[in-house]
Amino acid sequence: YSIGRPSSSRAEIDLIIYEQGENQNEHLAFSVWEFKSPDEFEDRQDYFIRHQLFDPSPLIGAPKSLVFATIIPEGDEPKFKLLNIDYQEYITFDSWIAGGRIFVEEFPKDYEDQNINPLVKGSSNDLKTNITHQDFRSLAKSFHQEFWSEKQDTDLFKDILKLFLAKILDERVTQNNSRYQFQIQHSGRKEESSQELFNRIDKRYKEAYIRYIEPGISENQVPELSQKEFSPEKVKFVIRKLQKFSITKSTANQGDIVGSFFEEILRYGFKQDKGMYFTHANLVNFMVEAIDIGNLAQHTFKKANHYSNRLPYVIDPACGSGTFLLVAMNRITSSILDNKSKLVSDDDSAEFVNHHMSNDKPNHWAKDFLYGFDPKFIMALTSKVNMVLHGDGSAHIFKYDGLDSFSNYNDPRINPYPKDTSSVSDVDYEPPVCERFDALLTNPPFGIKIESNIKRKISQNFILSSKSSSESLFFERWFQLLKPLGRLAAVLPESFFNTADNIEARLILYRFFRIKAIVSLPQNLFVDTPTSTSLLFAQKKTKDEINEWDDKWKVYNDEVKVIVREINTLLKANEVDNLNNLKKEILSKFSRIMGDDNYIIIKGKKPLFLDPGHSFFVDLKSLKKYYKLIVASTGFKQKQLNQIFRKVSNDLNYSFKTYCVDEVGYKLSKRNEKSRPNQLCKFVSLSNNKEVMNLHLTDDDVKVVIDTKNPKNVLDYIRKEVKWE
Description:
Helix 17 (about 375-390) links the parallel strand 10 and strand 11. The protein is of the alpha/beta class. The longest helix has 28 residues, at about 545-570. Helix 5 packs parallel to helix 10. About 40% of the residues lie in helices and about 15% in strands.
């Protein structure tokens, strides 16, 4: 029995026992069998159970048991020897090993389920809490085979998210000694119908949506769990796979397990939209540590005089699955709690920690301090579910376009800030600014088409033009969101730093930010895009620093204008005694702007050399025409800009650290992910103190180890060489 699409690796199943579903033509896998000779059965059990039962079973569906068997050739009738494993209890080989290799040595003759005891909160048959990354990967693989093996369908992913939401609520509100609603109920040995199950879960989902996503709306306003789009049978399949696991307790104190799970589904389930890429946990954790958000949190905590400024406000205006917010949240929590004895110095600070960072809800504070936007409902919902799973209370995750007008954001913290108290005045910068966030971590969409309703308002909201790249517009928005001295960590395409199209955005970077470091990354870090990327770390300037830049810019801009005016005056001469003397005088003026450069690039034409040769000009008219063409060219305007920029940056000693890495701890392909050396930073397992390269391929809790005395990786050097104000 061949499984899956044709490939270099195929699984062959010896026996599948099916049971009839609710419909006459529906057959569900009940038990999967692998037979071996008696010798192989005894000698290589783990190998065959892993590779020929656990590995292919997600492709088959949701079998209730896996049976590893042999036939002993003794007597008149076959004698079976077998290990019967409850696949609903142990969904992966690793979880089966960790659970003690539990099996029974017989197969039920009447095909009854091995265990139909209901799941009861607080009982001996409660939910399992030791779910791992491998468990989620196995779930993602089985969901892909069931839902996306033949066609790509983004809407199905939304429906799975809705079921996750229902399960979160069910785990949290079910009382002790009561049955969970998110499970398949039985009457004796008979399962409830798919429709009965659907109706109950749909009710749970609506309750969860109103509680976590849009409080205050009525039930009939909740986006429905449509039976046409996601049939009761599909709902039953998902619940059968998830029901025994606790996803809230499993993820509360771990990394982005569910985010990795969603990424697995997106990677295998359907092609992602352009610009919609998940940021790997290795990069996210490195970026959070690089801006030293832990120390920022401690500094903010110590100087606070009110609940509203007790911790830093953090935002990701293109949040995707919420990974940046999640990692920042965990880092801030651990930084405060690990230093509680020296930070808690009065009743107010003690009350904050006790009420908003308790043992039961250590991340409850995040509901007021973390913000995330994403225009795609599927991503906003993913991020919201992810944050709720990790116990943040209910973060400010909005289905907003990060480039929209501030006036369209329905939250006072992201309304325009009064210009008379902001870092820029109306004279210096006309668009509205917000300036209420202490840190911004993000991976914006690159090169995407801006929605027409957003594009129409760009001239009102940005100094960049509507023709600017999406990443450039996002960069200007980051300036608008951050407070003075706010910290920025962003993934950007290499083109942002070196192409003419992004010059205006780079001027915004230099005018309004102090670059702390740039880290150049290897290619192919994101599935489906070969774009070369770099990480930018910067700190927004204070009002005085911005004014200093602007003042110097004005001085040198005026100087350049004078020179251009002098060139134009020379070109207005009607008569000259010596053409070569006039040319020398013009070239002298040009050299004050051009420096050592001796030509101008004009698009679609040959370069124009400042000195085209001794006999190039036959008369005054030809000289005027030639140099007027240079003066009017875009290339010469760019040279003027370069000259002003060069002088301003030299005066202000504008330098920063740059780093280049070849390895970041992982390598991606469309079908798998591998560990590689990590030159960014060092992750160490808390359980065995061994180095972990790839955070996606470990179930251990890890810590980041930093050594500034003997730096070996980029983070070591950044912490040693980069100072945040």
